[in-house]
């Protein structure tokens, strides 16, 4: 028996079982975040409303869990029709068992499990290190994934002065420049006096569904109904608030804003937007952003999805990370997709067409 065949025989790849939770969390804590607990696991995998099982493949050796290939399930609208989509995330292999082909074996097992089943496609956002592996397994590239950032403290872009005299000098220059740029942007955010903005602690599912429930024709995006808003923003790793804009007493737009919970830099994201552009009025968006920027002035960095109009975002002090100056510092990710049915144009929409995807951070498993 060859060494490769021997290695394969040492490991099994199988569906996740309820008894695997503790071993999964132990490995996740070693690889990613030791603070992720059963509450987080229940929210993301056990209580996910779109599947009737925990969509995870695991690798074991002698009965011990040494790898996992989880998927984040979402109901996605493609030109008005719902499709189940799965997003790979939290993929992990114990350091002692790497370079044994487990990533590939678990991914191939997932493809076999879900091909011609209910899920229509996989989609995700790998970095430059893992991206080529997906392409070898049948994924196709949609586009480089861009994000808007409003930097409010030099540490958010590695200019906090730690590490070298050059970094200290950069920090001394960058701090005043950032402060001046953000003050200038704040002054430009006048908003619209006819728009009233109300902040909700947490996310009101029925209200946000009322605002954002209409599908975008020809587009691909998450299904924004009450079930989605009630579950998606129950993530215990983030603290959420909703900002709702009203005109003459009628709700016309809303932003869901999430702030990371835990140590390190404080990141606040405009996680969801309703309705999606171009249905979202620019003046309403500017008014909403003005309130968010004021309320989260103490966050180190604010982030927002690239679907928002650049002119409005620049006015609010946000810059895209795929253009200078942020592109000089950013670690770019790539949006990729893989059909599970053999149909790359469901409902006549090309899954690899960048313009068809109407994405916010709601479709990302890490926000």
Topology:
Layout: H1 3-10, E1 11-15, H2 21-31, H3 38-46, E2 56-61, E3 64-78, E4 81-88, E5 92-93, H4 102-114, E6 121-124, H5 131-136, E7 140-145, E8 147-151, H6 165-188, E9 195-201, H7 205-212, E10 220-222, H8 226-232, E11 238-247, E12 250-260, E13 267-274, H9 282-295, E14 301-305, H10 310-315, E15 319-320, E16 333-339
Helix pairs in contact: 7-8
Structural notes for this entry:
This protein is of the alpha+beta class and 367 residues long. Helix content is 29%, strand content 28%. It has ten helices and 16 strands. A hairpin with a 2-residue loop joins strand 11 (238-247) and strand 12 (250-260). Helix 7 (205-212) packs across helix 8.
């Amino acid at each position: 028996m060859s060494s490769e065949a021997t290695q394969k025989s040492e490991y099994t790849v199988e569906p996740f079982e309820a008894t695997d939770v503790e071993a999964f969390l132990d490995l996740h804590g070693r690889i990613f975040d030791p603070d992720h607990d059963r509450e987080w696991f229940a929210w993301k995998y056990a209580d996910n409303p779109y599947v009737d099982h925990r969509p995870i493949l695991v690798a074991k050796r002698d009965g011990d869990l040494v790898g996992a290939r989880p998927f984040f399930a979402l109901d996605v609208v493609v030109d008005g029709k719902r499709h189940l989509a799965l997003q790979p995330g939290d993929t992990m292999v114990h350091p002692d068992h790497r370079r044994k082909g487990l990533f590939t074996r678990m991914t191939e097992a997932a493809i076999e499990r879900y091909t011609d089943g209910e899920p229509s496609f996989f989609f995700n956002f790998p970095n430059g290190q893992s991206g080529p592996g997906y392409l070898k397994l049948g994924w196709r590239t949609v586009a480089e994934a861009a994000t808007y950032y409003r930097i409010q403290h030099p540490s958010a872009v590695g200019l906090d002065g730690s590490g070298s005299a050059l970094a200290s000098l950069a920090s001394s220059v960058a701090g005043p420049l950032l402060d001046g740029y953000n003050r200038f942007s704040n002054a430009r955010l006048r908003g619209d006096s006819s728009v009233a903005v109300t902040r909700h602690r947490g996310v009101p599912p029925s209200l946000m569904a009322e605002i954002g429930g209409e599908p975008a024709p020809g587009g691909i995006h998450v299904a924004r109904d009450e079930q989605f808003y009630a579950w998606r923003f129950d993530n215990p790793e983030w603290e959420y608030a909703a900002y709702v804009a009203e005109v003459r007493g009628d709700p016309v737009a809303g932003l869901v804003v999430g702030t990371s919970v835990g140590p390190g830099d404080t990141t606040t994201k405009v996680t969801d937007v309703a309705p999606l552009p171009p249905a979202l009025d620019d003046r309403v968006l500017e008014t909403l952003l003005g309130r968010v920027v004021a309320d989260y002035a103490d966050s180190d960095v604010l982030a927002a999805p690239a679907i928002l109009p650049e002119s409005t975002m620049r006015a609010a002090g946000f810059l895209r990370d795929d253009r200078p100056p942020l592109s000089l510092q950013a670690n770019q990710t790539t949006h990729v997709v893989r059909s599970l049915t053999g149909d790359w144009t469901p409902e006549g929409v090309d899954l690899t067409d960048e313009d068809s995807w109407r994405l916010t951070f709601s479709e990302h498993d890490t926000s």
